[in-house]
Amino acid sequence: MAQREQWGSRAGFVLAAVGSAIGLGNIWRFPYMAYENGGGAFIIPYIFALLTAGIPFMIMEFGLGHKYRGSAPKVFRSIGSKWEFLGWMQVLVAFAISIYYVAVIGWTINYTGFAFNQSWGADPKGFFFGEYLGLTGSPFELGGIRWPILGACTLAWGITWLAITSGVRKGIERACKVLIPLLFVLVLILIVRVVNLPGAMTGLDYLFTPDFSRLADFSVWADAYGQIFFSLSIGFAIMLAYSSYLPKKSDINNNAAITVFINCGFSMLSGVMIFAVLGNMAEATGQNVADVAGAGVGLAFVTIPAAINTMPAPAFVGTLFFLCLTMAGVSSHISIVEAVSSSFIDKFAWSRKKTASIVCAAGFALTLVFTTGGGLLILDIVDHFINNLCILGVALVEIILMSYIVGLDDIQKHVNATSDFTVGNAWKLCLKLVTVAILGYSFVMNIYTDM
Ligand code: PHE
Ligand code: NA
Questions:
Q1: Residue ranges in the chain modelled with pLDDT below 50
Q2: Which of 65, 243, 379, 396 shows its CA 20 to 30 Å from the CA of 114?
Q3: Other residues' Cβ atoms within 10 Å of the Cβ of residue 254
Q4: Reported ipTM
Q5: What confidence score (pLDDT) does residue 1 get?
Q6: Is residue 391 within 8 Å of residue 232, measured between CB atoms?
């Protein structure tokens, strides 16, 4: 059998893993999550979640991919043939995400263009939901394809296809080596620009002023864990696939810690960027920061355009902002689709080109639904279901399998063998108790609130 592809360098691997982790979630979810959950005080549960779940889980996944040299189904098949299905469940979740995540990337691509002359006009909300999305009244009413969205989604799928067919090193690694450093530079430029705007400091006060009383609320802690899992792309096939391309001698534990810390640093930068912008907008419009703070689609495509309208040099900030979202999104999309493709390559020994073409074509066909006037409504439903149940569910099965059925001893030996710093009982306890408890709690709570 041909030798498994490998990353060209350690930095290349870390940048690819960071590229997967840093995504729309860092920019539009983290700042609001922090603000809502005690501001500066949120740092405490966040860092706690990062140390007790984020890094330990990442070490485990990097270790699994590296040890069994395969994508999720292959990893779990190697552990025991009856577990292969868990791998495929994870792949299914990843594939589902790839289909609608790309729709949002399509919007950010379109908005990068709109930002040049603020085509959204004086009413960004009306523009986004009306003229642009052509939102219908119900998810059962599609209302026809929106051509600019279809065009942008085609482009996004095309970029992903190109990166994956070009190979691990020549495609994925190369793309992330450009995208991720550039993303950091652009965000820093944006920050320098926006923190000097009037009102920016008020915005940052809102974000960072700690409200320690919130820490008594258990849901704040659950939110911190939820954010860490989604943000790090752990628990559903992605990091397994990426770490399966690591050379034999690789420092697993250090790579995991570095990946997690870079992702966390980027989230903090995004928080500063977003809240400086919100502060400036509040000042310009005579509102309160609390009234304009928000997350998700509303933040990115309604609030930010409105904020850009009131800024000096709107084209500059606007274009850069949406370009950053696009780059963060594309590097994550590549990782989701790679997780799916590599699973089929491992299983059926198809060529990379054939596999990526089939996966991307199927994904693209399904994305069509999200380019219609009913797209956002369907996206909301699917995203809610995937985030609240599917991701938690497959991650939970994985962690229970590893800590209670298979046991963590083998993987512990494996990751410690090549790593600078070793993990011991604390690592096991974090996975067996803390991570299982919090994931389990969140999963049960979500089922409960959804019914
Ligand atoms: N980690 C990414 C983010 O924070 C999200 C993501 C989801 C990435 C699914 C890959 C796969 O936006
Ligand atoms: Na990314």
A1: none
A2: 379
A3: 17
A4: 0.95
A5: 53
A6: no
CB environment 279-307: b (16+ within 10 A), e (fewer): bbbbbbeeeebeebbbbbbebbbbbbbbb
Say what the pLDDT of residue 360 is.
98
Q: Which two tokens stand for residue 98?
A: 């790839």
Instruction: Report the separation in Å between the CA atom of 214 and the middle of ligand 1, taken as the mean of its atom positions.
Output: 27
Pocket test for ligand 1, best of 22, 101, 299 (most atoms within 8 A of CB): 101
> Residue 51: which residues within 8 A CB-CB, separation 6 or more?
430
Nearest CA to 164 out of 336, 24, 387 is that of 336
Q: From atom 9 of ligand 1, which residue's Cα is the shortest distance away?
A: 233
Q: Counting atoms of ligand 1 from 1, which one is nearest the CA of 333?
A: 10
Alpha helices per DSSP H over 286-402: 289-292, 296-298, 304-309, 314-348, 352-367, 375-385, 391-400
φ/ψ bin of 61: left (φ > 0), alpha (ψ from -120 to 50), beta (otherwise): alpha
Atom of ligand 1 nearest to the CA of 328: 12
The CA dihedral of 90, 92, 95, 100, to the nearest 10 degrees, is -100
97 lines ligand 1 (CB under 6 A): yes
Residue 6 token pair: 């490998």
Phi and psi at residue 445, to the nearest 5° = -60, -40
Please name the residue that has the structure tokens 């899992």. 229
pLDDT tens-digit map of 145-202: 999 999 999 999 999 999 999 999 999 999 999 999 999 999 999 999 999 999 999 9
| Burial degree of 68 (CB within 10 A; 0-12, 13-18, 19+) | buried
Of all protein residues, the one whose alpha carbon is nearest to atom 2 of ligand 1 is 23
| CA 90-96-100 angle, 5° bins | 145
Distance separating alpha carbons of residues 257 and 241, to the nearest angstrom: 18
Strands (DSSP E) contained in 309-439 are none
Helices (H), 196-217: 200-208
Q: Which architecture characterizes domain 10-450 according to CATH? A: Orthogonal Bundle (1.10)
- The tokens describing 428, both together, are 């096991």
Domain definitions of the chain by residue range:
10-450
pLDDT given for residue 3 in this prediction: 83
Q: Take atom 8 of ligand 1 and give the residue whose Cα is closest.
A: 332
Ligand closest to CA 21: 1
Q: CA 290 → CA 196, 275, 295, 312, 399, distances in Å?
A: 20, 10, 12, 23, 38
3 state DSSP class of 1: coil
Residue 315 · residue 10 · CB < 8 Å: no
